[in-house]
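@channel sequence for tomorrow's demo:
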Amino acid sequence: MKHLTIIVPNGQNNLSSIVGAYKIFTRANAFQKEAGKKELFKIQLTGLSKEVDFYEGLFTVHPHTHISAIAKTDLIIIPSLNHNYQKAVKANQLLIDWIEKQYKNGAEIACICTGAFMLASSGLLNGKTCSTHWAVADAFRTMFPKVNLQTDKLITDENGIYTNGGAYSFLNLMIYLVEKYYNRQTAIFCSKVFQIEMDRQSQSAFIIFKGQKLHSDEMVKNAQAYIESNIDEKISVENLSSRFAVGRRNFDRRFIKATGNTPIEYTQRVKIESAKKAFESTRKTINEVMYEVGYSDAKAFREVFRKITGMSPLEYRGKYNKEAI
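structure tokens (generated this afternoon):
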């Protein structure tokens, strides 16, 4: 029998991903048993404390055991750390060291949402692809520049390390892991029991782009402000760099270093975010919105919109604005 460890860190307040992971894998085990097979995993909650409070003491978790009692495990699940991820990293260094040791001893690791902050602090994500909640992407990139963060991905799978996007999308990661460790039939069963969509791979449609402002390059901040206040204009990078008296190559380099996007990518994301809001809250046509955000070529607008959101403008409007249908 394999061993599954669900981490219960100190100093954080997200309970749903712990409970959800436990319930889904417990049900997968039960499905195996009902089919006359052996349970695949021994499932244990573990941490550094005998009990951990959640939501100001409203709920309390009592882990099965302390990490020191688990010499070897096969799969580790790190839950979301919610908005206390920095505090949780500081409060759980022994746990992080244990996770790193287990990975080097053959364990695989799945981290949920902002649990990526805990895993990244071990160094195990350096040079690897990772996802996390889009709302903390800037903070994550600042803290862990050696990690290849891709918040458009719902699930990443690389060298025995799995990560996922934000909030309740962790349920999709659990179904993904059930299929990987059990089989497709068990995954389909769990998806039906818990009513979780199968094979969802992107969180692009859920991202709210606010612009990456956690940097100290004032020139780039001014350029960002100009882009954001002139959404209806066609802005060329040449005009933008000359406006701020910086050579094109140097402008690109500084912009990418500060924001993680090229100036063109940043401009596209700002324009598409504005278009998304228009589709969500108005009855404007696709063409009206397209012109408002500075596009005159319908094909180009559709292609950029789909690249950023994973949907066509029409699909997006239909999903988020029923009155506009």
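heads up for whoever presents: The radius of gyration is 22 Å.
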